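Known limitations

Files may contain more than one protein. Parsers should not assume a single record per file. Below, a two-record file is shown to illustrate correct handling: read the sequence, read the token line, then continue until end of file.
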Amino acid sequence: MPSRILKSWFLSLLLALIISTSVAQTKIKVACMGNSITEGYGVKDGRTYPVQLQELLGGTYDVRNYGLGGRTLLKKGDRPYWKEAKYQEALQWQPNVVIIKLGTNDSKPQNWKYKADFKKDYVAFVKSFKKLPSHPKVYICKPMPAYRANFGINPEVIKNEILPLVEAIARKTHAQVIDLYTPLLGHDDLAPDGIHPTAEGDAILAQEVYKAIK
């Protein structure tokens, strides 16, 4: 191969590599923080809501799932998200958008006895992201309905206590609320165990989050 052609080929390859790297670096990073509903407990074919959100947002976004089953927002809860490596990973990733969907496990009796700390802990969680150099936009989600008591989760606590607190926390932190409770009312069929949505239920979650971001 003549040196001129080889040089041209090398420059084209280098340019393509630079463009590819540039595109990867400019993607809008979306961190989905949450519990087993975000993680995708029981969802077939990996069709979690973050996966479906990625499809809706397209290639200019990079959506990552930081969901961990059983975790609480409460620092004194039985399994606080605060203590997990994934929390630190999410902070270090420097996301541009943060979706927080926590609170379901906090409704359990052993956790909700610390309900006086819920607002304070949630505000601190939001602020831990807002103070990042990436200055992400933070969304906090009203938890989806618990259709029946299961795994110790209390549907009435979610409905009557956690939902109003989410509104108060949003006002305090100037975060935007995403209502994942109302769109899933009456969709008991989309959560066979009363708590965790199917892929079809996750499609509704993804759509609501997508509408908020876009």
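...continuing to the second record:
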Amino acid sequence: MAIDAPEKCVIVVDGELPVGLALNTAAILSLTVGRHVDGVLGDDVKDADGFVHRGITSIPVPILKGDTETLASLVVRAAAVPSVFVVDFTRTAQTSRTYDEYTSRMSESGTAELPYVGVAVAGPRKAVDKLVGSFALYR
């Protein structure tokens, strides 16, 4: 599902992950949002020398933290809101060596059984805030 021009995008990462895995989770979720959500990336810009700098996100993307239970709940709750885009990242994905292994392993578990390590949500500000308003910033 693609949505147009979100007002807000947040990434929620399992606060218990080691820093390297947390950064990797945020990067993977960001790439997926950038691919699927129109209007997240701004246009390319030129500096005073005429050098072109590729467009970066045109909206802030705070990184929040949660635990595995709140991440699983967020996935289900966000999926039920038609105006938001949600993408999740699981420990299953994080520990798979290939995409084929990942897809095979994912087919063996139901949504509620998956070990979520990160979730990105993009959409209208009010809808996103309602979903993640109680989450703390990842520090």
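Parsers that stop after the first record will miss the second one. For reference, the second record is described as follows. The mean pLDDT is 93.
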